[in-house]
Design a protein that fits this description.
By secondary structure, the chain is of the alpha+beta class. Helices cover about 35% and strands about 35% of the residues. The strands form 2 sheets. An 8-stranded antiparallel barrel has the order 1-3-2-7-9-6-11-4, surrounded by 5 helices. Strands 5-10 form a two-stranded antiparallel sheet. The model has no long low-confidence stretch (mean pLDDT about 90).
Length: about 230
């Protein structure tokens, strides 16, 4: 059995137990693919067709740590709304079908991740069920290098990490994210971290365009980006 399918099966029972079984509302998922970071045009077209067939969208994201190590992930991203208990298990079953379809198309998935978007989410976080806060910024292209250098330096104190879609740019603005990840603690502790981060950004003249919070409730390969945050 493929490792991703085996990982989904191994975690399946836990998804039907509290507190995960109690979660409902908005979710989204990522299925990370083993493909070249710089997608050839023909492969990109194939992946876009497969994504459409599985009701997903093809997304690319670059993660960078504070020492400028960069990793580019190519993923299928899908959004769900499920207002009934047991939502996480149903979403995992749906993603198992996607993984099987990808393998049949000779595209290898290496990770499946499910995130709960609705708040409040879990009360406490740990290494397996961790919380992420994505702060979206729009940075003037001419000032990007200087601003990015400040984000890196400030990140050493605040604990955020930069990420972005390398293809997303709006006129003379670069869309950039900084992400806080919490592997322990509760919602109140994360609230305080977010407030501190936003305050620092605003003092620097960087007003967040959007703040998105989500809790990872299933991650079949946590080591994939553990280096990042």
């Amino acid at each position: 059995m493929h490792p991703v399918l085996a990982a989904l099966d191994a975690r399946r029972d836990r998804l039907e137990q509290p507190p995960l079984s109690n979660l409902e509302g908005r979710f989204h998922s990522h299925v990370t693919l083993r493909v070249p970071a710089a997608l050839p045009a023909d492969l990109r077209a194939t992946l876009e067709r497969l994504a459409t067939a599985h009701r997903a969208k093809l997304t690319v994201i670059e993660l960078a740590d504070l020492d400028r190590r960069v990793e580019r992930d190519v993923m299928f991203t899908r959004y769900f709304v499920d207002d009934q208990p047991g939502a996480v298990a149903r979403i995992a079953d749906d993603l198992r079908v996607t993984v099987t379809g990808l393998l049949e198309a000779h595209v290898e998935p290496i990770r499946v991740k499910i995130e709960h978007e609705s708040l409040p989410s879990l009360e406490f976080f740990d290494a397996e069920r961790y919380h992420e806060v994505h702060i979206k910024l729009s940075i003037d292209a001419e000032a990007f290098d200087e601003t990015y250098a400040w984000l890196e330096q400030a990140g050493r104190d605040v604990g955020w990490r930069p990420s972005r879609n390398p293809y997303e740019r709006r006129n003379d603005q670069v869309v950039q994210f900084v992400t806080l990840r919490a592997y322990k603690g509760d919602r109140a502790a994360v609230d305080a971290r977010v407030l501190h981060a936003v305050t620092l950004l605003e003092v620097q003249g960087l007003v967040p365009v959007e703040i998105k919070r989500e809790t990872t409730v299933l991650d079949t390969r946590r080591a994939h980006d553990a280096w990042w945050a």
